[in-house]
Backbone:
């Protein structure tokens, strides 16, 4: 094979129009003339960097392997002669959005001692759009705030004079042992936070013995995420995959085959997001029209509603998905199925009837329907109105987990495990080290909480160790329906679905 051409900046700069368009990415020169008009994010972002180095904006949102996979070898022109790079040539183009100016440098990782510390640093140091995307929630943020505040309304009933010298935080999730009953919630486009994105999270979780659930809208393909991990074994923590069902079902079927071939055996079917909620902080900050997920199909384009990444990148999701579609899913997926987004006892019973393996009690982090119930309140609803669910299904709580005490409260009330989303993304601000640090913090807080409550093993946790009196009056009683309001039929359908 011939040696690649060594190209000077003077030569590269000549190819800076839509009809003759070269860019440099990580020292490699590519001809994007034919590809640019078909680019999912539009030609504009590519033209901004025509004839120049586009490495930084490219690497913020794309996998390194994307160009070689997408373009033919004939489009690889050569490599950059770094000796010809001048400060003027390397200067970002004037039409590019200005670089984020950090209000404060990130403090040393070892000075962060709580989830709140990670969030505070993220707010100061992440790009405005990244912070808006991850921190935002629906409309007035009522549910988002209640997710965490409702945990504060549950009190412990500690036992004393117990030997708590040796404590064990280990648990089992779907038959596999993990170091603690916590897993990383699926979240989109983690590469917005750190170049290694989901790959860094996966390595940290693997090393620390907890589960990661990878999003359909991840920054990397599932193969790229799993390729950096050791070969799976029955003693290693499993990796789960979260599925948004595509309107074009064959695309989801191909994706599921890829997921299966990667070694993953459990999918989390998200059911609480037929459409995205109104996340005003996310809508207010315009997005770069070059932010796409390789496994999703949403096309990121600002529109008259704003620049909401969650809304626009989720435009491919099937709004017509219903319970009967679990038959289709079982026909194309041989592994375990967990339904993510259950918000009441009625649907928990439906999940049980459909024979799924688990449910996630979740309101999508308060990001969709504001004033939907907090996750811990949903757990109490199922305990009161559908207790049989706990005999057959694993039940996970997603939303509002900030402390080891929150984890223990959920376990005492019957949860198999909890999931944590935003905080792990904030920890990713420090790369793999940050994720590992956060895992250690949560595990230590859980262990301390266990000792002070008077237990040494999570199998000893039970409802008698908590007082839920401040929430009990909010837990529905009995079947669906309102305790006294009359139902006035209306609308084209003539009534509601129960």
Residues:
């Amino acid at each position: 094979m011939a040696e690649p051409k060594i190209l000077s900046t003077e030569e590269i700069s000549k190819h800076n129009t839509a009809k003759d368009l070269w860019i440099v990415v990580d020292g490699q020169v590519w001809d994007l003339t034919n590809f640019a008009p078909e680019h999912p994010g539009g030609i504009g972002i590519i033209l901004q960097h025509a004839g120049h180095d586009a490495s930084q904006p490219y690497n913020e949102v794309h996998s390194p392997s994307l160009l070689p996979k997408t373009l033919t070898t004939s489009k690889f022109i050569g490599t950059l002669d770094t000796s010809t790079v001048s400060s003027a040539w390397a200067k970002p183009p004037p039409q590019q959005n200005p670089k984020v100016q950090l209000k404060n440098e990130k403090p040393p990782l070892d000075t962060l001692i709580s989830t709140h510390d990670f969030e505070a640093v993220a707010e100061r140091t992440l790009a405005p759009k990244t912070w808006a995307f991850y921190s935002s929630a629906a409309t007035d943020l009522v549910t988002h705030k209640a997710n965490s505040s409702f945990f504060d309304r549950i009190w412990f009933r500690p036992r004393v004079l117990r030997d708590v010298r040796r404590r064990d935080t280990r648990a089992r999730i779907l038959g596999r042992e993990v170091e603690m009953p916590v897993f990383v919630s699926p979240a989109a486009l983690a590469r917005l936070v750190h170049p290694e994105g989901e790959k860094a999270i996966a390595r940290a979780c693997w090393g620390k013995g907890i589960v990661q659930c990878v999003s359909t809208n991840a920054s990397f393909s599932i193969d790229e995420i799993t390729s950096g991990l050791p070969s799976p074994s029955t003693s290693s923590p499993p990796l789960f995959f979260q599925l948004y069902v595509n309107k074009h079902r064959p695309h989801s079927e191909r994706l599921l085959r890829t997921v299966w071939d990667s070694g993953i055996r459990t999918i989390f079917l998200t059911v609480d997001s037929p459409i995205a909620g109104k996340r005003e902080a996310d809508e207010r900050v315009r997005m770069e029209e070059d932010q796409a997920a390789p496994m999703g199909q949403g096309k990121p384009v600002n529109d008259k509603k704003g620049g909401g990444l969650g809304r626009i990148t989720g435009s491919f999701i099937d709004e017509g998905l219903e319970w009967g579609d679990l038959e289709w899913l079982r026909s194309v997926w041989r592994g375990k199925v967990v339904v993510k987004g259950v918000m009441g006892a009625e649907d928990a019973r439906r999940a049980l009837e459909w024979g799924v393996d688990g449910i996630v009690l979740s309101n999508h982090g308060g990001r969709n329907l504001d004033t939907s119930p907090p996750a811990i309140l949903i757990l109490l609803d199922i305990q009161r109105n559908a207790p049989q669910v706990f005999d057959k299904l694993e039940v996970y709580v997603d939303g509002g987990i900030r402390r080891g005490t929150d984890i223990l409260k959920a376990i005492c009330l019957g949860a198999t495990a909890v999931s944590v989303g935003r905080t792990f993304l904030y920890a990713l601000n420090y790369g793999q080290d940050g994720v590992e640090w956060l895992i250690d913090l949560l595990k230590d807080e859980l262990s301390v909480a266990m000792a002070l409550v008077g237990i040494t093993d999570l199998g000893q946790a039970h409802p008698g160790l908590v007082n839920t009196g401040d929430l009990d009056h909010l837990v529905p009683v009995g079947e669906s329906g309102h305790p006294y309001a009359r139902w006035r039929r209306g609308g084209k359908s003539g009534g509601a679905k129960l």
